[in-house]
Amino acid sequence: xERPYVLIVSEVxxxxxxxxxRGVSSKEIxxxxxxxxxxxxxxxRAECDGIMVGANTVRIDNPNLTVRCVExxxxxxxxxxxxxxxxxxxxxxxxxxxxxIIAVSERAPAEKVREFEERGAKVVxxxxxxxxxxxxxxxxxxxxxxxxxxxxxxxxxWELLRNDLVDEIRLIHLPVVVGGDDxxxxxxxxxxxxxxxVKRFKIKxxxxxxxxxxxxxxxx
Length: 220
Description:
The chain is α/β, with parallel strands linked by helices. It is built from 6 helices and 9 strands; from the N terminus they run E-H-H-E-H-E-E-H-E-H-E-H-E-E-E.
């Protein structure tokens, strides 16, 4: 199946954490990003047709997922949520700002689907019990999304990586250490567990951006 080019972009700390603590918005740690790093992030948004985050990110961060700091069009926001479990007052459901696709499974309540559609979102069914990510990406391609930026969280990143759906990873390294056994990192899930199964990438570019280091990787 054809699918968009998929690019994971994330800030990470020295010790690979995405937030200050489990359940805490990543917006807190992103306050450490300076103007240069923010422009780098938003320039990527402006270059992509779609931008994806998971339902947990929507519930905790309530992001807008729009282009700021640079000139450019807002990408189509894509939210995979098997049961439609996101608040109806979420910023991503303000479709006057940017278009939104809500991806659900067949077990999503019909009433929730209707409420999403009433707010102007397009609902795509992709999977029976859970989101089928290969199927979802094929649907996104059909809808004109050729380049998809993924800003997390760790569960979405894992699903995409384990299904071999990631073409590139770009990390904004924040020069701080957070610590914590249960603080989310770039991916979650059960892990690959062996060298034979790990997903391999090669370094595309490494450079300094303000007070951050950017690393860019592409798949072998």
